[in-house]
Amino acid sequence: MTVDIIGAGIGGLTTAIALEKKGFKPRIYEQAKSLKVIGAGIILASNAMQVYRCLGLDESIKSEGIPLNALNITNEKLQLISKVDLTHFRNKYNLQSIAIHRAKLQQVLLESLKHTELHLDHQLKQFTKQNSGYKLEFENGKSVNSKVVIGADGIHSKVRNALNPGSQIRDMNQVCWRGVTKFDLPKVYRNELNEAWGKGDRFAFVQFSPDEIYWYAVKSFTNGPEEFSKDKLGLYFQKYPTLIQEIIKKTASETLHTTVMKDLKPIHTWYDAHSCLIGDAAHATSPNMGQGACQSIEDAYVLAESLSMQTAPEAFKSYEKIRMAKAHRVVNQSRQIGTMSHWKNPVAISLRNLVLKSIPQQVTISQLEDLFELDRYSS
Ligand SMILES: Cc1cc2nc3c(=O)[nH]c(=O)nc-3n(C[C@H](O)[C@H](O)[C@H](O)COP(=O)(O)OP(=O)(O)OC[C@H]3O[C@@H](n4cnc5c(N)ncnc54)[C@H](O)[C@@H]3O)c2cc1C
């Protein structure tokens, strides 16, 4: 069966790989003229790495990135508030969470495609229902008749707008800058992500290649783009320790990516008889749990398993049933974390930090058990 995928992001590419493994011949239609990567680094947590192990890609990804042993939240002085010890999950699943450059991940995914047609410069313009499928019309004037369409076209999905016209993208009123720089990180910070929470802002850094780090800085805003100046980052984060000041100083401001944080208010229909949404198109989350791509990777895996066992409409139904609860939990929790991490009231901040500090490691770990346990198709 031919399956048409709209979008060659992490979700679309992983879906194509998973479908190929099941004997499908996917066709991907991507609006970009060339596949450039936006957004510096990414953390692939245990759930995503389990999928990549099933697809035979875990070793290639590991060799291009840096394995993580811990996820730390600190105060703005880099004093520890909360630690997730990832060695528990390493032992449980016999694999590690990986910090990797997005370009390297994309390269691994592209190289593993064998039978997929990748059509660049194909921006979906119109998505029209026909008797047994859809007519896909592209901005370049071409059109295709399709029996099975997967909308992997991100938060502003055209496919979702056709399936679910009332969906609502929500602004977090937070702006995020992402950077990459060569940096000799003190040994104590290697193999872990550290996210320092201040007052209405936070700063995180992680080593993701032998001599480079990936970092992100997030700040609440009230007015808009006039507060997004890359050149003022040093000023915005001047209360943070010298290490963080140095990281900002070492990064060429013109290489930074600026993103306004958004998510999709949970929608409760992801499919119709011939089309289905995955990844950010279905459940875009704010990035506060580092799970957006991981969730789209889980989608890809479950959807390919379902399509290999059932007709498309049945498979879409199973996939939605298996995936929706966890994906929506991530959207909701991530939004709460995003809000809580940007509190400005010093009393509330002290209280929050005390509470977080008092949570036993075992409880923190058990809260993540469900998140990292892979959703699976079962007949
Ligand atoms: C600051 C930040 C940090 C993040 N960090 C992490 C992290 O550490 N870990 C993690 O798991 N997630 C993280 N995420 C989330 C993650 O980046 C996304 O969830 C993930 O990239 C979604 O993948 P996707 O394939 O569903 O969508 P996208 O990556 O948005 O891909 C959609 C693709 O569809 C194409 N497209 C769109 N419209 C059309 C059209 N009309 N026709 C044809 N093609 C089209 C686009 O060009 C794009 O290539 C982060 C996000 C942000 C903003």
What would you say this structure looks like, in words?
By secondary structure, the protein is α/β, with parallel strands linked by helices. It is built from 13 helices and 18 strands. It has a 7-stranded mixed beta sheet, sandwiched between helices. The protein is globular, with a radius of gyration of 21 Å. It binds flavin-adenine dinucleotide (FAD). Flavin-adenine dinucleotide is lined by residues 6-12, 29-32, 42-43, 122-124, 152-154, 158, 176, 178, 216, 259, 279-280, 287, 290-294, 296.
Summarize the structure.
This protein is an alpha/beta fold. It is 37% helix and 28% strand. It has one domain (2-169, 263-372): FAD/NAD(P)-binding domain.
Tell me the domain tally.
Answer: 1
Strand order within the widest sheet? 6-5-14-15-16-13-17
Number of helices: 13
Question: Under CATH, the topology is which?
Answer: FAD/NAD(P)-binding domain
What is the CATH C-level name? Alpha Beta
What percent of residues adopt helix (DSSP H or I)?
25-40%
Give the SSE map.
Elements: E1 2-6, H1 10-21, E2 25-29, E3 41-44, H2 46-54, H3 58-64, E4 66-68, E5 70-75, E6 80-85, H4 87-93, E7 97-101, H5 102-112, E8 117-119, E9 124-130, E10 133-138, E11 143-146, E12 149-151, H6 158-163, E13 169-182, E14 192-197, E15 201-209, E16 212-220, H7 233-236, H8 242-250, E17 257-264, E18 275-277, H9 280-283, H10 292-309, H11 312-340, H12 346-358, H13 361-372
